[in-house]
Amino acid sequence: MHRFLVRVGKAAAWVISTGAAVGVAWLGVHAVLGAASEPPRAVQVSEDVSDGPPEASSTRRPRPPDDHESSESSMESGTSGIETVSTTGGEVVLLIGPDSAELVSAVPKPGWEVRTREQEGLIRVIFTDEEGRQASVTVLCAWRDAPPEIQTYRG
């Protein structure tokens, strides 16, 4: 009888310790996968650093261009820095150099998907809606034989 109780005690200890280990492992995996499933958010970088209060107009977002118009970047030719392009489909952040550009991030808004294509002298970011309206917004950055130029198209 004594041996039976010892075996039952060992089995119970094994079941409890195995259950605890599985529970801890599940919580760890769930925490990692839960954080990985959240979409990344673009951080707006501003080169203007001031200690005073923001101006009233600094909170206004740029108006998206008309369907058949293209808008060019506000950066002057030959300047370098971070350029953020906000569209109806999402936000694109580019690192602009004097003779090249690099895609930092492309984050779609809820209900939109993003595709990127990079090749020599060109970065193309296309936002398409997921709701079947066949709407799209394209951000192009080209720098072949010229300083980088950013254009936005709606289609």
UniProtKB/TrEMBL annotation:
Q: Where are the transmembrane segments?
A: 12-33
Record field: compositional bias (Low complexity): 72-84
Q: Where is this region: Disordered?
A: 38-89
Which top-rank group of organisms is this from? Bacteria
What keywords were assigned to this record?
A: Membrane, Transmembrane, Transmembrane helix
Q: What is this protein called?
A: Secreted protein
Per the UniProt record, the source organism is Streptomyces millisiae
